[in-house]
Predict the 3D structure of the following.
Amino acid sequence: MRLPFSKRLSSKNAADIDIARAARDKIAARLAAAERAVAEHHANVRQLALTDADDAALEAAESAMRMAQDRVRTLSDGLHEADESIRQAEQRRDAADDLKRRAETAAVIDDVAERLGEVGSEFAGLMQKMAALTERAVALTPDASGLHGFCGRALIEIPESAELLSQVLRDIANATRNGSAPASLPRPEREAQPTRHVPPATTRVFTTRPIKWLDANGDLRIQPEFFDIDLPPDIAARAIELDAAVPIDHPRRRQMLGHGRVYRPDPARCVSLIEGDTTQPQPRPELVPGVAFEPMPVETGARYHVNTFGV
């Protein structure tokens, strides 16, 4: 059994939207990976420049970075086109839904108009029978005159009024179909689309100094030295540029991995990766023989944390 045209059209539009959204998600994932690759290539180029690499190595690294940047631009354009495809598919879906709703509304109005005509005709037949009876009753008693008069008026007015109202309703149905009148049936509530979470792009680096930065919510984040950490690509590149971190394939990571100590560094002694913050980290205090003083980053008035060595 074939579905009505409006339902087939609605099903096709829903399928088009699902296909377009799936394609968009794939492009978004590839774009995130491409942006991470750009950050990694950028960090590699800076590292080669700092280590006085030869021109051939620099050119190869720069070429790879440009290719990655071109890929980001290509995928960004593709993502824009995918968003536009989804928008157009949703417009087609909404238009199909509106067409279906108008057809259903007009069908309901036509049914009411038709039933009015049918019942009006049935009523006229009953009134004729009633009028014939009341006419005979009037000859028997004057009390029947009121009902007889009503039957006469109803026999004329109700069929005429029903026919007039039927025509008005047919005009409303036609206006609903051609879009000049709103559909009176309530719009169906759309089911909420599941949120597709796309994880933010990150670059993994190995910290060589304690660092601080602001996360996406503007909260201060702190990380001690000698640990792997995933950072936004721009912050990771800044950490490498400031010699506060190295890529995870750097020889220094192999040397120092496992030497990290879990503690909360003093923010004043962390290398700042916050954009626009040029504050230099404060040096660590000189150690007193036998006692190491390290202030705890807690509320004002807190005591210092003291580590003693054989005292």
